[in-house]
Write a structure and sequence with these properties.
1 helix, 135 residues
């Protein structure tokens, strides 16, 4: 009689609070910018969202910053736009932060209101660039 043992090793990768992702784009480098808070992904309001904020986000995600652009918000529609929380608004980054969480924002994380038109959110295209290694 022969006995075969099979095992599986699973590794959980829990993302830290303040992690960001791009959602809904046609490539990994574009989409609606979302931030993780209390275990739930939420939007960043487009009020004051600009190219400098986008460069910080692209850098945080491991992209370069040479080809960053801010498309129109309706370029990346999502079925859950109206039910997702808005975690950040009036984000204002300088060029030095390594993450959006380090940038100044007027509302505390998790309690943001969007003072812009209904259903607007920060979107981003990091361009056709190669990934940079995160240190």
């Amino acid at each position: 009689s022969t006995t075969t043992l099979v095992g599986v090793a699973c590794q959980s990768s829990i993302l830290p609070e303040g992690s960001i992702r791009l959602f809904g784009g046609s490539t990994r480098g574009e989409g609606r910018v979302e931030i993780l808070f209390n275990g739930r992904w939420g939007r960043i309001c487009s009020t004051l969202w600009d190219i400098t904020d986008g460069e910080v986000a692209c850098r945080e995600l491991g992209f370069g910053t040479d080809n960053v652009s801010i498309p129109t918000f309706d370029s990346f529609p999502g079925e859950d736009n109206n039910i997702q929380p808005i975690w950040l608004s009036e984000l204002q980054c300088s060029s030095s932060p390594q993450s959006l969480s380090e940038c100044f924002h007027l509302e505390p994380t998790g309690f943001a209101d969007c003072y812009n038109v209904f259903n607007t959110f920060a979107v981003l295209d990091c361009g056709k660039v190669v990934y940079h290694a995160l240190l």
